[in-house]
Design a protein that fits this description.
Blueprint (H helix, E strand, L loop, with lengths): L8 H52 L4 E2 L5 E4 L5 E2 L7 E3 L4 E4 L12 E6 L2 E6 L27 E4 L6
Antiparallel strand pairs: 1-2, 2-3, 4-5, 6-7, 7-8
Length: about 160
């Protein structure tokens, strides 16, 4: 009697199918983790920017103006230039005051949106990718965070207003 070693074609196909299913589950989980990681980074960025805005307020007695496109006007000489997300320091180069070394930018292809509602209040917005996040605004503002109109769905604000 001779012994045959190896696997049958059916056994190999079953193993390939199981590996395919496990890979699919892993990819979905990995993608979800990446989305949640980017959203956590966005939330941390908005908190950092909020802290910098409070430093500016303590220095100037008001929050910086906005340019109606979601940018902060508070950089450069005399802190009167538009700040560039992700590249410029939020600082007054005339006095040497640095509020934040580098104004953060969105970790993906979206934008942050700054709006000063009065000299003593502001709102900061971002677009969260995870639509199941509990901190998504129930009534989002009609602002463009890089994904079209009404795409800003998360916000922070000064203590005397709400996002």
């Amino acid at each position: 009697m001779s012994k045959h070693y190896g696997f049958t074609l059916v056994e190999i196909l079953i193993v390939i199918a199981i590996i395919g299913i496990l890979t699919s589950i892993g990819l979905v989980t990995f993608n979800s983790s990446q989305i949640k990681s980017r959203d956590a980074k966005r939330k941390a960025h908005l908190q950092q920017i909020s802290s910098a805005l409070e430093l500016y307020y303590n220095d100037k007695g008001q929050y910086p103006a906005d340019d109606a496109l979601g940018n902060i006007i508070g950089c450069g000489a005399g802190a009167i230039a538009v700040c560039t997300w992700g590249t410029s320091a939020f600082s007054n180069t005339t006095t040497g005051t640095i509020y934040i070394i580098k104004l953060p930018a969105d970790p993906n292809s979206y934008n942050y949106y700054y709006r000063r509602t009065a000299t003593s209040s502001y709102q900061l917005y971002a677009h969260l990718e995870n639509s199941q996040d509990k901190s998504i605004l129930s009534i989002p503002p009609n602002l463009n965070c890089g994904a079209g109109a009404n795409s800003c769905n998360y916000g922070v604000s000064s203590g005397n207003t709400t996002p």
